[in-house]
Kinase (Circinella minor), 354 residues
Amino acid sequence: MASNAQLIKFDNQVAGHDRILQFSTNDLMVIKPSAQTEQRFYEDSQGDLEFRCWIPKCYGSLHAATDSELQLLEQQGEGLLEQQGAAQKFLTIDTQHLCLENLLNGFTRPCIMDFKIGSRLYEKDATEEKIIKMKENAKGTTIESLACRIAGMKVYDTTKGEWGIYGKQFGKSRTVDNMTDGLLAYFFPTSSYAYEEKDPIRTSLKDDKATITPKHISSNKMEWLLECFIEDVSSIREYLEQNPNIELIGASLLFIYEGDKTAADAVWKKMLEEDKKEKEVSNIVEKKDEDRENEEQEEEEEERPPMYDLRLIDFAHSSFKSQQETQDTGILKGLDNTILLLEECLERQKKEKL
């Protein structure tokens, strides 16, 4: 364990029971308590280069802090652990922790949605008590009907300078009939869809550092984002169907997009400049020069802040099964319905001019 870093609570967690932390010195990674199953899943995924593109990077694991390390952390943090009770509990009780890529790094005001996929929520060797509990939790929710569910959301209304936070009750209250409305609340946080739900399902949090703008993120940008998400979910669905050895149980899709209008406009401008530069490149170039130019462009792209991201997360019950010949139908159904829901969001955005 690093002795010169302070651990603080990660404030952008929108679902789950895990106590996720991050280092106070940077926001490049998060520290998540994990079971052996999840650690093994990340280890096994290292041999699958294409699948690794769809999950957070894993930088390794940490062990539980010893008493002396806790004392050192408390001294160096000037009471940090006393102030962060969750952090102390995390370090003393859990024995294994994963260091994962912070997918929100680079965003100014990220809009986040944890979206559960699949109808199977427990492993084959789960206890009867666990099976009953998980079935009861899914009863009457869109997990039963659509094999997917909104687990939690955090959105930013750039016209009011405030965050909207939707807890798990919001997702559980969705039905087949109003599921799309729930997604529209995520993608269009300045619309009426985002304000239909009252406390305690939706809570508001003022952003004191925000610069309020009278306009929301433009429709053409949001249309592009929806098209990108549809394409990415389709790619994930295709890959999982072709690789049935990847068994996902209780996993989620994590949707992220830039919710700050000023930041989104700046990223969009940069993207257009890159596209223009790429089109201006001559087709008659020596191979070595072309390779060098491609490398330079890749470096530029890495430096540009992200406009959106989509990853699979939460693998506490997932694994690689070498002998599994067909992909779980619940996962495929959940992804198919996710695509249909996103397509409906796109259609309604155009129709309602959101």
About this structure: The chain has two domains: 7-101, 110-259+305-352. The two ends are 48 Å apart (CA to CA). The chain has a mean pLDDT of 84. Residues 7-101 form one domain.
